[in-house]
Structures are given as structure tokens and as C-alpha cells.
Amino acid sequence: MRGKPNSELALLLACAAVDGTTGHRVAGEFDWDQLLALAQHHRLTTALHAALSADRLPQAPDGFRRAVAAAYHTNAQQALRNAGALLQIVRELEREEVPVLTLKGPAVAVAGYGGLAQRHAGDLDLLVPKAHVPACLPLLRELGYRPLQEISNDRVLEALFRSWHHLNFVREDGLVAIELHWRLSAPRHPIAIAPDEPWQQPTRVPLGEGMVATLATDMQLLYLCEHGSRHAWKRFFWLQDVALHLQGTGAGLDTLDRVLRGPAGRRVLFGLGLARELLGAPLSPAVAAKVDEAQRRAPKLYLAWPSLEGGSAFSLGRHRYQLSMMTRPRDRVRYLLAILERPEFTTLPETRRSSPLDRLLKRLRRLR
Fold first, then answer.
1. Among the four residues 53, 60, 137, 226, which has the most C-beta atoms within 10 Å?
2. 7-21, 42-56, 227-241: which range is least confident on average?
3. Is residue 165 a contact partner of residue 193, using CB atoms and an 8 Å limit?
């Protein structure tokens, strides 16, 4: 990748690394406020807490230590709150015979991190078959969750089914947020997992006094890579998810070969490459060779990626990144057409639509 991370980011990555070498004690002069801000942005305050607990940051000032400890305990409380809410929702859905899988979140925390409090606790992601989504809506309302999108009739829901992949809910007290998925990715993003595959051999993980189902081990890795790449890896804790998953389970070429030849192969390779470079994720020799080959074939992509941090959602760099991740022309066309249909695009102030690609999309929209 282009250049080197600044000293604070390098230290943060060292704290989150899984290879046992870059995570050694780090010396130097640091802006501790900047380090904490970076950790909060990348959802890696738990990695700082682990480093402090292991005495790998002996030079850290007391104020920094107190701030990290406070963030860790706040996150731990949210993780427990999320776990309790997840068990309640899963129990009610299963009672109504609605199949449900947990995506990322507590399932990844338990399986990859060794505990709920060790991973950033954000919203809860649930996957249900599309046919069961209408039955989930009143059930979630009864449990105290309200949808953030207004669903006034079946036509609205059908439109969402065609163009999107989840609905957002928030609990009445505002403390728990849910994404209810009926597919793993929006239609404009190719994905390596067929719609029926998640339900074939799910994995069950213990959570408190219950169990929750999640994606099978190999499928989990593909989804983590796809999800992070779709969001341009703007949060590095998604890379830590991948790195810890690889450390705990490994990934051989037999697992990935079919995927790497498919439309989402570039996304998966990009995620594996970043996890190896930034966090020391272990790759088998065969997979490492595939990653090296991908980097040689598309060096500009790997050099340009860090510049995607920040910026408008409609910037030329972000669109170029997304299009470069697609290998099939029809996927690129579908992506561009989906952008034209996004209502946010038409409501952006004129000054925000300044990139060449934005202006091109504006012209194309007028022609439709």
C-alpha cells in the first residue's frame, strides 16, 4: 500500500495484530489523544485495552489509560445488552418457526475473540428468509422495536426486497439497534454466497445461557471479507474479524478456490491481503500466492485504497474502488444503475456533486 501509516495508526495496528510479532511492545513518542480518536473511529478500543492489560504500552499516560478503561467498560455493557436482546429475539422468532441466523456481532465475538466484551458492540445483524420478513415486523414491534423506514404497505416492502437487503430497527429505549436482513448484500454488489447457502449447514455458538445459529465457518470468512470490502474497510475492526477468524480456523485453497474464480473473488482476495499486511493474519502458502498474484495484477487498486478514508459517499474514488472490485461487466452496469436510483443522489446539494463520475451519472439520469 502507498506509504506508511503514521505512528499512532501504526501503534493501533500493532495492538490489533494477531501474528505475535507486530504486537510486541512498541516504543516511541505518540499523540495519545490522536491514538484514542483513531481507535474509536476504527472500533478498536478493545485492542488498546488488551495491549494495556498485557503491559505492551508501558509509556501510556494515566489519562489515556482511564479513557481506554472507560470505553472498554461501556462497550462491555453494550455487548451484554446486545446479547440479551439477541437471545430474546431469536427465541421469539424460533417460537414462530422463523429461521434466523446471527451475522457478525456476538457470534463473531464469541467464536473469534473469546468473549463478548473483546469486540466492538454495535448493532445486531439478523438474517431471515425473505418470505418470513412480513411475519417479523409485528413480532419485533411487540418486543419494542420500531422500524426506521416507513413501511406503509406491501408495495413498499416489495420495492425494498428488489433494491435493498435489510431493514433497520431501534428499541424504544434507543439502546439496541437491529438490521433485519433477507439477503447478505444489496443486489448491486456481487457476493460469493448463494441465497440458499446460509441455511444449509449453519454453525451454532453458545451465547450466555442459550445458543444462536450463524454462518458456517468457511462461509463466515467469505461474508466478513465481502462486507468489509463493500464498505471499503473504513473500520479496521472488520479486518480484525477476518484476521482472528483466519487465526482460529485457517483457510485453505480448497475452501476458497471456487469463490476466487467467481464474481466476488477480488473482494475476498483484497480483504485477505489487507488482513495479512496490516494485522499479520496467517494465510496458507496457496492462498498467500493467490493474494500476491492479485496484488501484482491490480497494483493501482492496492496503492489507491488508503486514500478512500473519508470523503463524500459519492466521490469518484469510492465509485472507482467499488467498480474495480467487480470482474463482470454486468455487475458494473448494475452498480451504476443502482446509483442512479438512489434518492440521496437527487437530493444532494449541487456543490456535493462535483466529481467527474457524479456529473456523468447526473447526465445519464436525465437520459433515462
1. 226
2. 7-21
3. no
